[in-house]
Amino acid sequence: MFSRFFLILLLASAFHASALACENKLVCIEEDNWSIGVAFGAGARTNPLVDGDAIPLIILPDVAWYGEHAYFDNGEFGYQWQPNKDSTTEVFVRTNTERAYFAFWHPSNIFLPTNSVTDDAGTPSPGGEEDPPRYISVDDIAQRDWSLDAGLRTNWFNDNDRWSFTVIHDALGVHNGFSATGRYQHDFEWQDWALATHLSVTYKSSNLIDYYYGISQRDTSDEILWYSAGSTFQFTGGLLFNKPINQHWHWLGRIQITSLGSGMTDSPLVSKRYVTNMFFGVGYRF
Q1: pLDDT classification of 26: cutoffs 50, 70, 90
Q2: Domains along the chain?
Q3: pTM of the prediction?
Q4: Most exposed residue of 27, 108, 114, 235, measured as fewest CB within 10 angstroms of its CB?
């Protein structure tokens, strides 16, 4: 139950951004005040693993608090130093989300149609000369453990643009891997809508990718399926949108797609080249 709730908090953070100095027009939090909200709607995050089901997004909590330096933002605990109107630097801890694909309950019979086991990424060539791809189900492998990320992030921003660079490392020694992300976000308005587009590129180390998506003797005795994963680059693009209905209610939504990179998609455990994340609904802020 804890893992489910924490994952939902992490997914909910997509609708909530660091609010120091109210640099993001979608959300603004006054210092030393709690921001509590909840979104209701329909959406899902696809699961790229073989026999992995989509993660439903139906009710998304949004809980944040920002002090002068310390903050809590949807599962992320952090500390900012020397913040100003143009930039912030913060250290933080949060759970690593990779294991979410392995741990979440199977809701497809209730919320969403079952995902196909493979997509075009695993389709044999029409010539029929090659052996068919070999896969292993997420239900048939050894357990992957949760990890805690410790990170450093620097943000630069102006009225409508925000750049950030983040480096995180496995704080518990589960996989001893790390990742680094560069991200750009542009905020703009259209009629009564507040919108934000974002692009990012993330490097994930071989230790991180191999722990979660590599296949070895711990998973199967079939050596044909063994796979030692390398590092990978993942590219993400997305759109956030928000429109007030009244003082408390607002329309909101998110569309995002991430390409996973060959270090991950070459694994017999992975059947898709990308992950999509979509949600449409209404939000209430207390």
Answers
A1: very low
A2: 2-122+133-285 (2.40.230)
A3: 0.80
A4: 114
